[in-house]
Design goal:
Blueprint (H helix, E strand, L loop, with lengths): L33 H19 L4 E2 L2 E2 L1 E4 L4 E4 L2 E3 L4 H22 L2 H5 L2 H18 L14 H23 L5 H8 L7 H21 L2 H6 L1 H9 L6 E4 L1 H4 L5 E4 L13 E4 L12 H4 L20 H13 L6 E4 L1 H6 L7 H22 L4 E7 L6 E3 L7 E12 L5 E8 L5 E3 L5 E3 L4 E11 L7 E10 L4 E9 L12 E2 L3
Parallel strand pairs: 11-19
Antiparallel strand pairs: 1-2, 3-4, 4-5, 6-9, 7-8, 10-12, 11-12, 12-16, 13-15, 13-17, 14-16, 17-18
Helix pairs in contact: 2-14, 4-5, 5-7
């Protein structure tokens, strides 16, 4: 019995795959226009901000600094600690709601205009590639017969750019002055930092030299997440099918002295009066950084970069047709000739976001000037003192771990309350901490034996600083149950 051979697919599963499954390398042509100019301005501003932020100091600290060993995150003068779980929860929730709102209004504006993958690839690496190898061909292919020294020079510059960006990345985790000092020393003096820089450099070279647009198409979950958040009113790159179809080539009449055979500035006439405005030049395809044909409708691979708009507008200008065959619009506007910005989610998302912002600011403003945690120290739960001035007292040894959350040095003092006759003794009284500093104070609490009920007594430890901050903390002390014999193993002689 014979079977028919399977039919070959007429369409690619991915825009970066050929029909035989091999990699389809993309070399998009650069289409100049108003959107490219605006995106370039946004990209340059973002690059400047990214490189400058670690060097900008606010309150004596880097503007953004993730200090992993100290478990601190500094964000524009505010320092967040692992105990700030409420702030972290509100921040993450607000970020998600903001993504929902921006996607509902502007589609994938992040992907095409501000994503680091797009900014680096389209405004650093590909311009460098065009500088060394030349512009891609009219069919979106790599130029042929490129001298070897140009290819080698391109990779050297790619490595230097990736090396710099890796150091800038590390500057968000290590103070820039320290990183600058490390850069002048031997890598063996700081092997961990050197390994991180080398790893990040390698990942960037892999991404921007080899993987490229496949990061957006295959690897990035954010693009898929944004795609499912779109609705029929969301702003997307749209092809006006009613105006462009049926598409068809144009007959050309060459003007005297015009040598370029495919120059769209030639005088043209339609093959038939029923043709649409799309002349099937495929410039929107060859300029697309993800290799899709926007005329097929909304696609997950579209990042909203508007390169196809600039390309199509330039063609329309040359053939004397109005711009906007490809434009920012929505599915509802294209199919029903109406777009409604006013819809429930446009009000719900801002309302939720406002509540989150108010809650975040409230928690941030009312956060204490010092973080204090109490830990028991020593191998005994308590000690009954037999002699000395504290004879008959029960001692609990504790440690206060303090974080100064103010921008000024502070001196801390401790007292005990809540128990009559209780006394706090510490060699760390008047503990001094710098702005944002951490410290520990060992304290011993002496409490009368009769203050304990069933082995428990509640004391109030009060912390004060020079700035007028005061915090009271209750702590449950451990002590005897009342039987003298049962406590003999816990007794010691006071010094």
């Amino acid at each position: 019995m014979t079977t028919d051979a399977p039919a070959h697919a007429h369409e690619r599963v991915l825009s970066t795959l050929n029909e035989d499954g091999s990699r389809r390398w993309l070399y998009p042509r650069l289409s100049k226009g108003r959107f490219l100019t605006r995106r370039r301005l946004v990209a340059y501003v973002l690059l400047i901000v990214y490189n400058a932020l670690p060097w900008i100091s606010i309150g004596g600290k880097p503007s953004i600094h993730l200090n992993l060993p100290a478990r601190e995150f500094t964000f524009f003068g505010a320092t967040f600690l692992p105990t700030d779980t409420v702030l972290l929860m509100l921040f993450v929730a607000g970020l998600f709601v903001l993504i929902f709102l921006l996607t509902a209004l502007f589609g994938r504006v992040w992907c095409g205009w501000a994503c680091p993958q797009t900014v680096y690839l389209e405004f650093i690496y590909r311009p460098i590639e065009r500088l060394f190898e030349g512009e891609p061909t009219a069919r979106g292919e790599r130029p042929k017969k490129i001298p070897g020294w140009r290819v080698a020079g391109k990779y050297v510059v790619f490595f230097l750019i990736s090396w710099h960006l890796a150091h800038t990345f590390l500057a968000y985790f290590v103070e820039p002055t320290t990183l600058l000092q490390w850069s002048t020393q031997s890598p063996f003096d700081h092997p961990a930092a050197f390994t991180i820089v080398m790893a990040v450099t390698g990942l960037m070279l892999f991404d921007f030299v080899y993987f490229r647009e496949q990061t957006c198409i295959v690897a990035c979950p954010y693009g898929r997440f944004q795609s499912v958040m779109l609705d029929r009113q969301s702003l997307i790159i749209s092809y006006d099918e009613s105006r462009g179809e049926p598409r068809g080539k144009l007959k050309k009449r060459r003007s005297k002295g015009t040598p370029a055979k495919d120059d769209l500035s030639l005088k043209v006439v339609h093959e038939a009066p029923v043709r649409g405005d799309c002349i099937d030049c495929e410039m929107c395809v060859t300029t697309c950084p993800t290799g899709i044909d926007i005329r097929r409708g909304l696609q997950m691979e579209c990042i909203g970069c508007a390169q196809c708009i600039d390309a199509c507008d330039s063609v329309m200008d040359r053939i004397g047709r109005p711009r906007g065959l490809i434009r920012y619009s929505s599915q509802a506007a294209m199919e029903e000739n109406r777009r409604s910005v006013i819809r429930p989610r446009v009000f719900i998302y801002p309302a939720i976001l406002s509540i989150i912002v108010i809650a975040f600011v409230t928690v941030l403003v009312t956060s204490p000037a010092a973080n204090v945690t109490i830990h028991r120290i020593g191998d005994r739960a308590y000690t009954v003192v037999d002699s000395g001035m504290a004879s008959g007292m029960v001692r609990n040894d504790l440690e206060l771990r303090i974080v100064n959350r103010t921008n000024e040095p502070q001196r801390y003092r401790f007292t005990i309350g809540g128990i009559e006759g209780g006394e706090l003794i510490s060699q760390d009284q008047n503990l001094e901490l710098p702005a944002g500093g951490r410290g520990r104070a060992a304290v011993s609490l002496f409490v009368p034996r009769e203050a304990f009920t069933m082995g428990r007594a509640t004391a109030t430890i009060t912390l004060r600083d020079d700035g007028g901050y005061e915090r009271e903390m209750t702590y449950r002390l451990q002590g005897p149950w009342g039987s003298e014999s049962s406590d003999s193993q816990k007794r010691e002689t006071a010094p």
